[in-house]
Amino acid sequence: MSKNDDLKLPREPKFPTHNAPRVWFLTCANSPVGISLSRHLLAHGDYVTAGVLPVEFEKHEDRSADFKDFLNEVGTHQDKETWRARLRVVALDVRIMAQCQSAVAEAVQSFGRVDILFCCNSEVIVGTVEELSQSKRTLTLVHEQFETNFFGPVNIIKATLPIFRSKKNGHIVLLTAITGHLGTPGLSMYCASQWAIEGYCDSLAYEIAPFNIKLSIVQPNMEINVLTHKITSAPPMSAYAEETNPAPLSRNILSGLLDRLEGSSEPTIGDQLHSNEVKSLYPPLSKGMKERLVAETVHAVAAIGGHDNPPARHIVGFEGVTTVKEKLKTVSEELEDFIECSTSVDIEKSDEAPRPLSQGSQTHVVIPG
Question: What is the model's pTM?
Answer without folding.
Answer: 0.85
